[in-house]
Amino acid sequence: MGEILRNYDVLDAFWMTIYLAFFSAIGALVIGTILAVMRVSPVGVLRWAGTTYVNIVRNTPLTLILVFCSLGILYILQVSLADEQSATSIRDNNIRWAIVGLAVYHAAFVCEALRSGVNTVPLGQAEAARSIGLTFAQSLTQVIMPQAFRGAIAPLGSVLIALIKNTTVASIIGVAEASGLMKEIMENETASLGVFLIFAVGFVILTLPTGLLFTWMSQRLAVKR
Amino acid sequence: MTEPLVVLKDVNKHFGDLHVLKDIDMEIGKGEVVVVIGPSGSGKSTLCRAINRLETIESGTITIDGKTLPEEGKALAQLRADVGMVFQSFNLFAHKTILDNITLGPIKVRKQKKDEAEKRGMELLERVGVAQQAQKYPAQLSGGQQQRVAIARSLAMNPKVMLFDEPTSALDPEMINEVLDVMVGLARDGMTMIVVTHEMGFARKAANRVVFMADGQIVEQNTPEEFFTNPTSARAQDFLAKILTH
């Protein structure tokens, strides 16, 4: 096992996993929040658009979404997210499109987690907000969403853990993250069980503290009623 | 009691098959304190909520200070800023401190500076007797304290009229008076108030007029004196007999 760790840059591969997870989590949070706002808005068209997005994206395998980003958008439609002249343009494009795909996919789950958070906010809070003259947007940003986020921390934690593990799918479009390296090592070496253990433990080290942190935060930040 | 501040004309509303407001006509003058009483299901809460359009109406008009209630949007938000509302369940913003609850409206709607809003907020908390609790969260306060904060939150907007939707119904008995005292004080200071309540003592002490509602209609209205001693309608006599015997 020590030999594997010496010969292969396992840490670097996990660093890519963290990099993918970090940026796609931010993207998913932003898109998911917008979707959640659309789904609770009084405008029918926005509600319909949000619902349609969630239903389509949530029910599509992540593999398909990433392959579509890579083959469909990057190679067929030629939409590049990296400088074509640079030496690392293929690598950069793969990574960036992987982040986009992961963000778009997990945004649907973030949206649903937030919407369950919105449901923890009593109707009276919105009525009180409107009664002091706040506009719809102000009620949302000042009163409803801050409480909805606090009520949604635990399910958001589950989404983040799923996202961290789902970064492994990015290896199919050529991103050198942890599971991609694992496959490579398994092809070259004989100690499969050891390799498997190294990567399993690596993911546990990433996800277990995440879960603990979110559980702690959900208790700490819970809105007392 | 000069020109009417709030005018309701031919207001109608249904909840499904239930006709909750039937041809309501009502005028409330500046500085007037009107208490609305009636059996549960009589439509009194709906009436109160319709005045700042938390409930929409199907026909008729409601005007406040000469302006007809607009559709949902910026204009309605502006109008609501001038109409204070106190709820049965307080509805303080659970994630904000007491002081932040009070200053949110002045800062976001009235565009006041933060320190200015906080200074006025503390004065109002002083007035309702909960200044000590300014940095606490709503859940840390008793019901009576929360309701007094809710009144201060409405007052911070300098409303032209205040609506009270059963403000003491969710309170323990020993906390009712502390809230009523604040309301009596407001009435003395000349605030225009529409109060839906079961507190007959408050009606006697502070109201200019009692409006009795039953089955979605205004059955009878009179001064508290007259209404409690000489109710004219059978429905009101029956209602008073039931609540005043114990």
UniProtKB/TrEMBL annotation, chain A:
Assigned GO CC terms: ATP-binding cassette (ABC) transporter complex
Superkingdom, natural source: Bacteria
Transmembrane segments: 13-38, 59-77, 97-114, 152-173, 193-216
One GO biological process term: amino acid transport
GO molecular function: transmembrane transporter activity
Family named by the database record: Belongs to the binding-protein-dependent transport system permease family. HisMQ subfamily.
Name the record gives this protein: Glutamate ABC transporter permease
Native species: Knoellia aerolata DSM 18566
From TrEMBL, chain B:
This protein's UniProt keywords: Amino-acid transport, ATP-binding, Cell membrane, Membrane, Nucleotide-binding, Transport
EC top class, as a word: translocase
Gene3D superfamilies: P-loop containing nucleotide triphosphate hydrolases (3.40.50.300)
Xref: SUPFAM superfamilies: P-loop containing nucleoside triphosphate hydrolases
Residue ranges of every copy of the ABC transporter domain listed in the record: 6-240
Mode of membrane association: Peripheral membrane protein
Cross-referenced Pfam families: ABC_tran
InterPro entries the record matches: AAA+_ATPase (IPR003593), ABC_ATPase_HisP-typ (IPR030679), ABC_transporter-like_ATP-bd (IPR003439), ABC_transporter-like_CS (IPR017871), MetN_ABC_transporter-like (IPR050086), P-loop_NTPase (IPR027417)
Catalytic function, reaction form: a polar amino acid(out) + ATP + H2O = a polar amino acid(in) + ADP + phosphate + H(+)
A cellular component annotation (GO) from this entry: plasma membrane
EC numbers for this chain: 7.4.2.1
One MF annotation (Gene Ontology) recorded for this entry: ATP binding
Location in the cell: Cell membrane
Family: Belongs to the ABC transporter superfamily.
Protein name: ABC-type polar-amino-acid transporter
Organism: Knoellia aerolata DSM 18566
Lineage of source species: Bacteria, Bacillati, Actinomycetota, Actinomycetes, Micrococcales
Gene: artP
